[in-house]
Amino acid sequence: MTTDEPAEAAKPQVTGRDVLARGARVMWRGIRDEPRRFTIAVVGSCLFGSLVIGQAFVVGEIIEDVVEPALAPGGSVTARALVLSAVALIAMGLGRVLGIFGRRLGAGFMQFALQARYRHEVTGRYLRLPLSWHQRHATGTLLSNANSDVEAAWMPVAPLPFAVGTVFMLIVAVTALFLVDWAMALVGLVVFPVLFVMNVVFSRRMAPRTARAQHLRAEVSAIAHESFDGALVVKTMGREDLETRRFEARAQELRDALVSVGRLRGLFDPLMESLPFLGTLAALVVGAWRLQAGAIDLGQLIQVTFLFTVLAFPVRAIGWVLGDLPRAVAGWDRVERVLQATGEMPYGTGGATGTGPAQLSFQQVHFGYDTGQPVLHNVSFTIPAGRTVALVGPTGSGKSTIATLATRLLDPQHGTVALDGVDVRELSAAALASTVALVPQIAFVFDDTVRGNVALDRPGTDDDRVWQSLTTAQADTFVTRLPEGLDTALGERGTSLSGGQRQRVTLARALAGQPRLLILDDATSAVDPRVEARILASLRGASHAASILVVAYRRATIALADEVIYVEQGRVVAHGTHDELLSTVTGYADLVTAYEKAEAERERDTGYDSDDAASVREEEVAA
Amino acid sequence: MTAQAEPKAQPTGTFRTLRRGLALSPELRAGLAGTVALALVSMVGRAAVPVAIQQGIDKGLSVAGGPDMAVILRIVAITVGILAITTTCGYFMMRRLFTVSETALANLRVRAFRHIHDLSMLHQQSERRGTLVSRVTSDIDTITQFLQWGGVILLVNGGQLVVTTIVMSVYSWKLTLVVLAAFLPAVVVIRAFQKRLGGAYAESRRRIGVMLGAVSESVVGASVIRAYGISERSGAKLSETIDDYQRAQRRAMRLSVTSFSTGEIAAALALSAVVVVGTLLGVDGQISLGELTAYLFLVTLFIQPVQIATEVLNELQNATAGWSRVLDVLQLQPDVADPAHNGVDLPEGPLDVRFDQVSFAYPAGEPGKTGPRVLHEVHLDIPAKTRVAVVGETGSGKTTFAKLLTRLMDPTDGAVHLSGTPLTSVRFGSLRSRVVMVPQDGFLFDASIADNVRFARPDLTDEQLTAAFAELGLLDWVQGLTNGLDTQVGERGEALSVGERQLVALVRAYVADPDLLVLDEATSAVDPATEVRLQRTLDAVTRGRTTVAIAHRLSTAQAADEVIVVDRGVVVQRGPHDELVTHPDSIYAKLYASWLEQTR
Predict the structure, then answer these.
(1) Please, what is the average pLDDT of chain A?
(2) Which one of A67, A607, B443, B453 has the largest count of C-beta atoms within 10 Å of its C-beta?
(3) Alpha carbon distance B86, B39 (integer Å)
(4) What is the mean pLDDT of residues B474-482?
(5) β-strands B435-438, B387-391: how paired?
(6) Parallel, antiparallel or unpaired: strands B562-567 and B570-575
(7) CB count in 10 Å sphere of residue B29
């Protein structure tokens, strides 16, 4: 099952070498976006780091100046010295708490702010990008771009200030070590760079593995999305086993990928943990040698070994940042693809093209969703202002595509679509929306109240207008019966309504805007004949203000039209009144008289049957 | 219905979730003893270095005559050896841990997936779309991510806490009591915060759900939003959900930092207390300088896990919340359950249908409550091999009828029988292979047309596939598509027109070759000529089976052997079309009159 997304993800985009550089660029962008919070976090982190180092020295000093003399044979200690030691340590603890607040709140708030900022940007793009772009991208992909990809991009931001603080801390530590003794400092100069290099090696080797896991995660998610979307089909066909196998195959691949990620961690983590310990031991050996040489005293030795112990953990923060970078880069790439997506369909600046019913014309319009597969060929027709035109054609002949182009949800590859003679590409968004209203074949209901769905907060859509539209759409009766009337929330995609009710709500939505051109794309397919008849009757009564293009099969709908356009395989085959087309176009006649013919045939069949039966009876009687 | 409830902002007890999780994933216990043994050995390494320093100071440095390098080197060599062993053990421990946990979680994922499919249609539809998906994706992902990053850190540091406590007690139990006492208030404060914190994290998960719902609406409804020029309105709504989520995240973060800063204060208290009390003990001769120094190192090792907890607690909360949501779904009893092994198979041959005083009401908001009845004591028989059309106005209950017939729902009262067998006792394996429903929205998978038809019969050869389209008179149509049977239908089939999707869905049901075929407005978007053609071929092929067609196009009713007219949940008329139209003023006669008016 293909979407374009796994194909993109399959490209080995985040491997090895350049990932750190690219990751650093992503982080730099985050820092530029949130300089204040980042600064707070880094200052907090440095405060924390300094105090950690400071504590190592204070502990060393306390041991040397207070503990050692006290514990020496015949030694003693004053209460003042002890209290002073305790106060110093507690004060440093409070300072660390302050540092933690700065670091964690700064980093956290920075991360959340970045997530929110890019979610705003990505979803803002979604709302601006044209339908043709949306049609090329799977819903699941777009959802994960706005959610998990944004999240992944800013994942390393959380430990970033800690890591920056740690680097600062290491510099301070090495400097402090040099102040104590050059030989001891050399131990640090060996251990810390080795730790850093190991982290880098680790994150490089990790990158392809996490990328693969991330890619498989997306696939697992796509399968789940699709499978649950089609749950009713799966259920009614009893294919739960098949679907579970399909899901399981990918879930197991993901498991294997995650185990491989885990094994690498299993190798590196214990090594990374042991290295600072080895540093401590090295410091002990070197320290003993320097102590022997009289270059340092015992307190300094303890300070240095203590320093290695307390540094062991913060150094890991660098590893966390580096470890999250590959995912961040992969996530950012996807986010950026949305932000940089082109193919925007800019609106023009033209205002309303007139008052009263609008005229719609197609001039030599060619269109295909894929360039190789044309759907419309050289389509030309005009709907004069105030007229009602029926668009008729067999299943798959391009009727919905025409409706979509007329609303400028898509632009033709060649040719022009014009309203009142003005190319729709020259009209502003507001002018277009106030002129044309499309009622699509599949009703889309927002997670909002009835009022919200019909009015859409458009100017002039007060409750009177809403009720009036609902009445014309024959939806007033059931809306009145809803528990809270206009204020009833319809739920996600309007699941609380039946198909026919949803269609009527969307029809009312179109009417509430008082469009000058109304396009109905088989918009009453789920409505019963009687209700539909009433809708058509009320539309006829209200239609004086609008031109209407109606995609239809039913004779009554066609009868409402002044003219009929008949399309077959993306071409306008005929254009005229119903009667003209009925007598001259075979395809059209076959289509609209299908029911009558079927009925006539059936009557003929039953006629023969009864004749047969009659003759059988006669024979029986004769016998 | 419990499934309906959105994940409410309720705290999830970490240990309770852990217990439930272990009970539902016994695989997690596999080889646990070995893993724990390895973990314990690997943690010894952490205590080895402070001990080495103590030994080094007491036996190598503080000895008379200056530092004894030989002793120091021996101590260091032994410690390096111990570190080598513990590091290796750490590697194997993590390998085992990851393998076991990822295996268990993959199984959990698959089980949850299967379980969601086993839930009843009403359960499935009562959830927000994204919610079910996140049960088998992001929720489980948070657990695996936690295990890979935070979990190991927590585990190892938990172990470190234990090991250092033991070693500390060996050096001085008195000092250890002092340290524990210093941490006691922190533990109390942190525990008190836990509940609020859990609530805050749950709230932030809920907010993310709302946000995703809004994003999904703006993506799925892109064409409507554009057509009505309301992108600003949708954008404002979206922004609000994004900002709400951010606010929830911040609140959780503030609580988390506040609660764990108490740990840091406790650490400072502990360290200073050890210095004071330790010195006094040392003066008293109860502890040596080396021992006290080692003890200070150990306290640092004891404190570290607390610092680390502040870094990974966020993930732990998320992981537990995610895990508990997965477990909630797994523990949800399907209200339309497969009798499975206790069930029976449907009898061979064509199926007849009996509705025995069937009533139905949709469940209302609260569990156990139901809304108004949509079907009232429907009692009817449909003989085998007949073609029945069910007609009635929108909301009359005809779709409910179809759903009860196919056991997508169970009646509130009464029973449905197929060939004398109560539907509730039929194994799903048997039921779904013999009874197939074609729903109105012809959902297609994002694959080729051929793949979609093969969904019903994976073993279908290309010839059989072509033959099926030919038998239904759809070969010309499908061959007219650019890639014929290999045409990709796109997400949900959206590359095809709505009518075309219905055609594929119909072929899919046709090749499944059921004995009872239920068509729920299955051709509502197909053009009349094609519909009539389909009707004719379906007539031909349905001779051997029972067909129930829900329709508002009365052409279907005309072609049926019998028409059942439903009005406000009651069967008001039944009989052949020709007979029913002769009753003037009857509901059917009115429906037919408006049908004629529309189609003539």
Answers:
(1) 84
(2) A67
(3) 9
(4) 86
(5) unpaired
(6) antiparallel
(7) 12
> Rounded to whole angstroms, how far apart are CA atoms A380 and A364?
5
How crowded is the C-beta side of A238, counted as CA atoms within 13 Å?
Answer: 19
Query: CA-CA distance, B62 to B65, in Å (whole number)?
Result: 9
**Residues A378, A314: one domain?**
no
Residue pointed to by tokens 């893993």: B35
* Contact partners, residue B58, CB within 8 Å, separation at least 6: B288, B289, B290, B291
Q: DSSP readout, A340-375?
A: T---------B----SSS--EEEEEEEEEEETTEEE
**Rounded Cα distance, B222 and A130, in Å:** 8
CA angle A433, A435, A441 (to 5 degrees): 70
* From A9-18, A130-139, A162-171, B144-153, the region with the lowest mean pLDDT: A9-18
Query: Residue A259: which of B99, B496, B498 has the nearest Cβ?
Result: B99
**Tokens representing residue B592 in the block:** 């037919």
Statement: residue B384 has pLDDT above 50: yes
| HEC assignment per residue over B246-311 | HHHHHHHHHHHHHHHHHHHHHHHHHHHHHHHHHHHHHHCCCCCHHHHHHHHHHHHHHHHHHHHHHH
Which of B38, B132, B133 is most worth mutating to test chain A (most A CB atoms within 10 A of its CB)? B133
Q: What is the CATH number of the domain that holds A502?
A: 3.40.50.300
Residue of B130, B490, B211, B447 whose CA lies nearest to A134: B490
pLDDT digits (tens, 9 = 90+) for B120-166: 888 887 776 677 888 888 888 888 878 777 777 777 777 778 888 88
**Is residue B301 within 8 Å of B47, Cβ to Cβ?**
yes
Domain boundaries, position A120: 5-9+12-339
Residues from chain B that touch A101, judged by Cβ atoms under 8 A, are: 257, 261
Q: What is the pLDDT of residues B481-530, one digit of tens each?
A: 888 899 988 888 888 888 889 899 989 998 988 899 999 888 888 888 88
- Residue A18: CA count within 13 A, CB half-sphere: 6
Interface A-B: count of C-beta contacts within 8 A: 531
A599 vs A89, residue with greater confidence:
A89
The pLDDT of residue A605 is 67
Q: Decide if B283 contacts A142 (C-beta within 8 A).
A: no
CB B290 within 8 A of CB B62: yes
Element (H, E) at A437: strand A436-439
Looking at 3.30.1490.20, 3.30.390.10, 1.10.1040.20, 1.20.1560.10, the CATH number of the domain B14-171+323-335 comes to: 1.20.1560.10
* CATH 1.20.120.1760 correct for B353-599: no
CA atoms of B504 and B525, how far apart (whole Å): 12
Q: Which amino acid is at B436?
A: V
pLDDT at A2 over 50: no
Asked if B179 and B274 count as a contact pair (C-beta separation under 8 A), the reply is yes
Instruction: Please state the domain count of chain A.
Output: 3
The beta-carbon neighbor of A67 closest among B289, B505, B521 is B289
Task: Kindly tell me the sign of the dihedral angle through the C-alpha atoms of B130, B133, B135, B138.
Answer: negative
Burial class (CB in 10 A: 0-12, 13-18, 19+), A80: exposed
Q: Are B528 and A393 an interchain contact pair (Cβ–Cβ within 8 Å)?
A: no
Residue A114 domain flag: yes
For an interface test with B, which of A58, A76, A255, A419 has the most B Cβ atoms less than 10 Å from its Cβ? A255
A388 CA: distance to closest CA in chain B (Å): 17
C-alpha angle A61/A64/A66, rounded to 5°?
90
Spatial neighbors of B400 by CB under 8 A, at least 6 apart, are B360, B374, B375, B409, B569
Residue A195 vs residues A158, A189, A311, A319, B83: alpha-carbon distances, Å: 21, 10, 11, 9, 17
pLDDT value at position A14? 46
